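Researcher: I need the complex structure. Ligand is FE2/S2 (inorganic) cluster. Inputs:
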Amino acid sequence: MFSMRIDKIIRHSDDVSTLFFSSRLRSYPGQFIMLNLPRYEEIPLSLSSPNSVTVRAVGETTYALIRLSAGEIVGIRGPFGKPFTPTDGKALLVAGGIGAAPLYYLHDYLKRRGAEVKVLFGARKAEELVWKDRFSVLMVATDDGSEGLRGTVIDLLKEEELQQYDRIYVCGPEEMLRKAFTHLKEKEVLGKAEFSLERYMKCGIGVCGTCILEDGSRVCAEGPVFSGKDLEGVEF
Ligand SMILES: Cc1cc2nc3c(=O)[nH]c(=O)nc-3n(C[C@H](O)[C@H](O)[C@H](O)COP(=O)(O)OP(=O)(O)OC[C@H]3O[C@@H](n4cnc5c(N)ncnc54)[C@H](O)[C@@H]3O)c2cc1C
Ligand code: FES
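Model: Output:
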């Protein structure tokens, strides 16, 4: 574990903040870190850029994190895990809620490689569309209709002509991942799709078995990014 200073914090809403570290981490989009705040449980967080994490408060540790001040020190292990497979061609990013975090990093990374990137972003309400302005070509859906289409990101996905994309990347809550998986399978494009999964984690390095899927894959080691083909027949 190494120590890192928080240089800057952006508070997007009451429960979502981005913490910027003093140094960039040698990493790839889709990888995560184990972040240790003294006196709290160590938790996994995806990198939202080489030097940031974007955190939604859901419990003790994440609430403490979004309330940190610049200058404070956190402990970090990682980056760990399998990243997204990049493309130089046409990419579709499908983001649900805080699931957009690793896709910010992926979006910027793919654009730098010259890829053509389109983003579908869904959230419960407009204020949860955190950092939407960072995405170039964007379609938005909100459950309450406060911005974009009234509906879900899956409704947006169903409108897409999927054969045109070289790669499709999906990240969000479990139910959204499952619905996206079913749709992409029906459309016979699972072979070019990748999904970022979340599981409760302890070690983050494939040792403790906490994050294991029913086929024996460890989300921290074989994932968190899995190809559509890897997930066929697996309960997730
Ligand atoms: C690989 C990976 C990457 C992640 N990336 C991010 C990220 O970029 N940003 C981010 O905000 N979170 C991310 N998470 C989720 C984050 O790790 C959890 O929200 C955090 O561990 C909760 O800790 P806590 O102590 O605040 O809450 P806890 O006290 O552990 O949990 C509080 C409540 O939240 C629920 N909860 C726990 N984990 C999750 C979860 N994953 N999703 C929804 N509810 C949960 C619990 O069931 C409980 O009801 C990621 C998780 C994984 C495995
Ligand atoms: S968290 Fe220990 S094996 Fe994945």
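Model: Summary of the prediction. The longest helix spans residues 100-112.
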